[in-house]
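Schema walkthrough. Field components (list of strings):
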Amino acid sequence: MSGPDEIFEDEMERARYAEVELALHRALGRREAPSGFADRVMERADAGAQPVARPGHGKLLTMPVRQWRTWASGAIAALIVLGVLQGERIHLQHERRAEAQRQFETAERITDQTLEQTREQLQRAGISLEQ
Amino acid sequence: MRNAAAEFRSVVERHQRMVFSLALRVTGEYGAAEEVAQDVFLELYKSAERLTSEDHVRFWLRRVTVHRATDALRRQAHRPEAAAEEWMDDAPGSGPTGDGTTGIGPVLEARLEELLGTLPEAMRVVVVLRYQEEMLPDEIAKLLGQPVATVKSNLQRGLKLLRRKAEITMKEYVR
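Field assembly_structure (string):
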């Protein structure tokens, strides 16, 4: 009878390979890691492999140089874009103010002209507004 | 931050033998094995995956080590798979002792690890997980994401191949 953990279903096969299996168990014991292995892993971990979930306040200070350059380039590019957009906004505001002023002056001129024409018509009709 | 580093170092020290030995037996090369083993621990360090128990850590380390080691093995120039089938003509009871056993003694035991390096990748991985890590076939199947029948088939073929090679080696030895 074989169980689910057996490699060979047949009992004769199991007996046949029992010796090889025993030899493999003895031959394949775990080996020691090379001397200083843990130190080398920790050095690499400290050098650049920061874990994903960490508090954010120290991240810029501990970021490796290559990553910092990339970050800085992106930040500078973003600032330039923002600066351009801000400049355009200010210019637009100025334009709008100037336009509003021009329209007001035009309206004032039209109103003055209209009032003058009305006064003349009234005078011709013999009506005086001055008292 | 210091506590996290100390904790990680503790994990490395606890599991470095397992990870390194797995990598060594799969790749067959000492230098490649250390590189694989370091990369496995660094991947653990960077991983956001929450490993909640010792069993979970062990499972994760074994699985990632096997994946990285087989990748490294595939990148190597020499691969034994093409020659494997030539060895598979199994003659029952033809061992050197005449009684069906191979008479594997200490000399050949020392060579078994070397012979392991001549197995094709699929057989090599399951043999190492079974006899180094003492994993059961269904545990190996779960780790590798394979059917249990596939794992057992590769174990059977791997053992047959090793036995055959050990017989040939013994015949050469006694000559």
